[in-house]
Structure prediction request, 379 residues.
Amino acid sequence: MVKSTAGGIYIHIPFCRRRCIYCDFYSVGSRLADWGKYVTALLAEAESRLSRAAFKKPTIYIGGGTPSLIPPEEFIRLSEGVRKLAGEHGEFTVEVNPDDVTPELAKLWKEAGANRVSMGVQSMIDDELRAIGRRHDAYQAEMAYDLLKSEFDNISLDVIFGLPGQTHSSLKKTIDGMLSMNPQHLSAYSLMYEERTALTRMRDNGMIYEQADEDVVGMFEYLSRRFEEAGYEQYEISNYASPGFRSRHNSSYWSGLPYIGLGAAAHSYDGSRERRANVADVRAYIAYWANGMPQEPWNTETLDETDLREEMIMTRLRTKEGIDTQEFRSRFGMKEYESLLRHADEWIKSGYMELNDKGRLALSKSGIMISDEIMASLF
Prediction:
């Protein structure tokens, strides 16, 4: 098959030494990990699916969970196998935790093909890190960054705002610390109280208190301003990049490009109408790809026109470029195009959205702060 479509390959590593109390991604304890069998299953799925994918120079992203826990020999086997199947590829990101980074592992990840690292720092305040169950402290984050930059020239750091007990001064210290490292990319996320997480149970039991909405908005405005002043472009609601360092893999999600998710609980999209979700069960996943169990360990969903239209609005408006309204009209017709512009008009007049002379409809800086409300009004 001629490979002609841009796309991404996501590989989920569902193992953690300790679960962060805010996390609702599928993961299990690393003591349960049979790394050899899991990597073998990943490569079997990759061989089955990538051979049929019409991808040209795809991105690769190993996420989790905690990919930095993968034993060196298994990381090499996984990387070599996927890269061989994918052919020529572009950006290759691996997620890491600061306390896992060593000189030997940083060198190994680079030699195995990774050219970008995303490190979950979250805060530079030790009390805040302990409160959310992180395994590292601020000093370890700084030392890990120094080790990574000796091997990589494309490093992204994650920060969380709205943490219990976080103050403007503690957030300033976190931002100061991250900017002093001078990473190429930063991702900033508001703390979310997801169902069935320890964090939500603690809030509901009165053990911690959720930050007021206005305080969280203030924190977001502050960090966005600081990042912009430091030369980072806010190219997506939660993501900031130095010139030339946007995340190509994540950008494919917001652009509606196809991607293949490998591993337990990984998700895929064919770029047209079909979504696929692998079962969130490591044992069932391994059993199928090792033994050909009759029960396929995934579910599929076919998107209808409403799903596709709403998803385009939601994903494109997350980006700096926004919605190409001419593309929207060609995909969904004049009636939906006129409806989109009619509902957007009040937001444009109030300064929360902008429509440029090229037909791009995007959120303004003030609109980003109420993005959920605006998107819902356009559905």
